[in-house]
Amino acid sequence: MNAVRLSPPATLTKPGIIQDHPVRATIPLASSKSESNRALIIDALTGFQCDLKNLSTARDTQTMIRLLKSQDPTADVLDAGTTMRFLTAYFAVTGQQKIMTGTPRMCERPIGILVDALRALGADITYLEKEGYPPMQIKGFRSSETNRISIRGDVSSQYISALVMIAPLLPNGLTLELTGAIGSRPYIEMTLEQMAYFGADVQADWEQKTITIGPKPYTAKPYAIESDWSGASYWYSVAALAQDETAEITLLGLKAKSLQGDSAIVDIMRSLGVESTFTESGVRLTKCPARESLAWDFTDCPDLAQTVAVCAAVKGVTLHLTGIESLKIKETDRVAALQAELQKIGAELVELDPNHRYEVHQLPTSHTVPATIKTYDDHRMAMAFAPVAMREEISIEEPRVVDKSYPSFWEDMATVATVDFIQEEAIH
Ligand SMILES: O=C(O)C1=C[C@@H](OP(=O)(O)O)[C@@H](O)[C@H](O)C1
Ligand SMILES: C=C(OP(=O)(O)O)C(=O)O
């Protein structure tokens, strides 16, 4: 078993006197895998003519790059949701015969809504194991007359992003009518903004819940990807939990006006004690007073839920969460994972009523330190719990899970805490 042991920042000033180490860090951050993976699909649809700068080092993006170039008949996306959904649409519309597969967990993440829509547009796709789930075989594409499709908006926005990105290639374009609630809407808006930047004819009417894409091809252009706001969230939590009231953390490459909905962390963390100041190079985090309780709807920013839940739990801020239904179909069931692991740091996540309202609160009982946190093949479990190290020692299992979105996470953490990797021998 591999683990990483994190210890709070402290220095020995005189024998026996331990003082909090001043928390000062400048963090380069990984760039956004969401923006990268969209830019890569659009680039491929221009015949690889765009000059993409600052592409993410995330495994999800590196997998996308590899699979776009590969002649292999099997595309194994590993655990990358966007790579699976975006490539399925891309291979279908470009008429490439591919088997789409991934990790066992990827084969439990639903894809039926996207496949049904692609079939209606003319794709020939068959499931190889379970209906509605990978693996599946893409056999070919014969454009249908259909250019209007009704699609649920409440399961994953990635299906909608995948469809709109290929729509400029369809002979009659595409109109999507979104039904039900729309989850992760900022991710759809990010897709549409990037498409419009590359010259696509894009119209969204959020009142009517329709998106219309004209049959106008993309224009190749240079594009620079912003740093990752989801990755930035862990640094907000570090700042919120730092004991040093003068803590100052600078996050490079972030913009006040971002395409990424996870920039909502700026507003969330103001309530948890972090002030943001935008500079030429990024954003500077400093401490400010925190509130005693906070209610937040995570419908638009589901990837922030774990960061905020752990941070609030440790700070003793009562947190009410709504809009976290989609967490159950991500890298793991993130609600169940949080419920199990928050207990270990003396807190709990409870469902308040059947309407998906949840509360996180601290428990009065003490807990064992260091806690050993399981990560369930989920990068965000590891990174959400890492900031606890600003208060107490903590061990996190399978630390390389972070490679999915933020491979340099532990190197960056080493600027604010002591980071020791532990390789435990198998016991025979
Ligand atoms: O389009 C994207 O880049 C993403 C959309 C979101 O997924 P859902 O739309 O499934 O919520 C998010 O959780 C994921 O990390 C990235
Ligand atoms: C849910 C995530 O990614 P994906 O759905 O692309 O696997 C994530 O990065 O938190």
From TrEMBL:
Phosphoenolpyruvate binds at residues 33, 81, 109, 158, 334, 380, 404. 3-phosphoshikimate binds at residues 33-34, 38, 156-158, 184, 303, 330. Residues 21-69, 79-413 form the Enolpyruvate transferase domain. GO terms for molecular function: 3-phosphoshikimate 1-carboxyvinyltransferase activity. Its EC number is 2.5.1.19. One of its GO terms (biological process) is aromatic amino acid family biosynthetic process. It catalyses: 3-phosphoshikimate + phosphoenolpyruvate = 5-O-(1-carboxyvinyl)-3-phosphoshikimate + phosphate. InterPro entries: Enolpyruvate_Tfrase_dom, Enolpyruvate_Tfrase_sf, EPSP_synthase, EPSP_synthase_CS, RNA3'P_cycl/enolpyr_Trfase_a/b. The active site is at residue 303. GO terms for cellular component: cytoplasm. It is found in: Cytoplasm. Its main location: cytoplasm. Belongs to the EPSP synthase family. This is 3-phosphoshikimate 1-carboxyvinyltransferase. It comes from Spirosoma telluris.
